[in-house]
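Troubleshooting: if your tokenizer reports a length mismatch, compare your output against this known-good record of 588 residues.
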Amino acid sequence: MTEHGNAVHVVRVKSSHVTKQGETRNYLTSYLRRSWREGRQVHKETIANLSALPDHVIESIIAGLRGEQLVPAHARATVARSVPHGHVAAVWAQAQALGLPALLGPASRARDLVMALIIARVCKPGSKLAATRWWQDTTLAADLGVATASTDEVYASLDWLAGRQEDIEKKLARKNLNPGVNPHRLALFDLSSCWVTGEHCDLAKRGCSRDGKKGLPQIEYGLLTDPDGRPVAIRVVPGNTADPKAFEQIAIEMKTTFGLEEMVMVGDRGMITSARIDQLRQLGGLGWVSALRAVQITALMAGNGPVQQTLFDQTNLAEISHPDYPGERLIACRNPALAAKRAHKRDQLLAATETDLVKIAAAVQAGRLTQAGPIGVRVGKVVGKYNMAKHFHLTIDDGQFTYTRNQAAIDAEAALDGIYIIRTCVPDTQMDAATVVATYKSLAHVERDFRSLKSIDLDLRPTYHFTDTRVRAHVFLCMLAAHLVWHLRKAWAPLTYTDEHRPDPVNPVAPAKRSRAAQLKASTHTTHAGEPVYSFTGLLNHLATLTRNDIRYGADPHTPTIPTLATPTTIQRQAFELLGRPIPIGLK
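Known-good structure output:
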């Protein structure tokens, strides 16, 4: 073969062939060739047939022949850092949609720190120190400019938030409790508690713990929401404050601080008592929806009272009146499902109590318990454990212990099974009986908020702060996070197990039921589009896998990096679409 020094090139030749069966087959052949001119004649020479090589190898040969310098991929582009971004970006997007940064106050470093604490509380609840460590490993710290924040600055931002609480709550109340969006002018209210670590907080007192943390100091807080359970305001009182007293403080603040002259407070029977109703009457402009206590229902059932079992033969809802409750409407309800549940529970508790009492009676008979005092102590623990003392006749003496069921007391309680009576001053022109029942049952929204605040989403408890101001600020910050979570849960309902279209019950007394679509999601663990269904926390964790990568091109370590988002999954795209926001590469 003649030697020539001319440059080589790649030629691609397309050809086709028709088979005997009439099928056309197309071929693409790649050759490495060189060409040269001798006088007026052009000569071509095929050096190699490249057709057997992979396409990317052929492309590399072509690029090399063009003079491009090929380098290994790791030397061309370097990922300098990759940090979670999707979850904080989604929470920030929802906060922006709600106008939460502007609601907090004018732009400042304190506001940025509070926003970072709220987002951290939603994504990764924990102590303030844990939050400052966590946000360093996400895009949150760099984008909000809080990466260098000290612990003192974080605590100072809590003080700043505490000073703005009243103004923020006024704006939330005007937005969510005004007659335009809340025609019935309802506000839900309930109390809960949280135990406190340390012994130097004036708010921390020993009281009736709703968390089962006996022997530990606690604080109590009252949460005010709109009818749908959207948190609006929260107040912290000492842990030994009685529920009615706390309600009284909130009711007065409704009149003075929030300027809501006409509202209907909805609370349970232990919260809005007859004494509290008298106070509401004196305040004026505040109505109520509550329920009667068991002793009050018993009084209405005594003798030929207006409430008898026959009242519910044809219906499970009836409106009555009684002179003991002037100016009020009483709506008597009977829920058969609730009646069966209470009867079953009572039978279980009676059986469990008798099982333990049999053991005590055997010990007395065997002579292991002889004195009345120790016998009484053991019996008291048993009946107190199951709260069944009222259902037993107990005889205790030295060397003697007998018990029998108090069937009259059991029958009297059984007569109340499934029966509850709602009391309200709201006229029937504003709310019919079914609406009043539905309104009272909407207290479940507040209970859901408490679960979200306490353990499911935000881990409000326990409280580690010592000063009154920072304890109040911590609880308020958790409430703002709960307000944000409420909207996120609603927006992401199609991607989670939340029932998007819960049917309105035909009978307001009957238990609520999930829609068929929600039941299908729960059984298949997939959406209608076949994508996986997540819990709220699980969806946040999945969004966290959407990273922002700082990529450096070239080998020079001083070359600036370029932030680049990882390719989002289908669920991640849908999560931002449901928020009505594009996926931002940065928070600001």
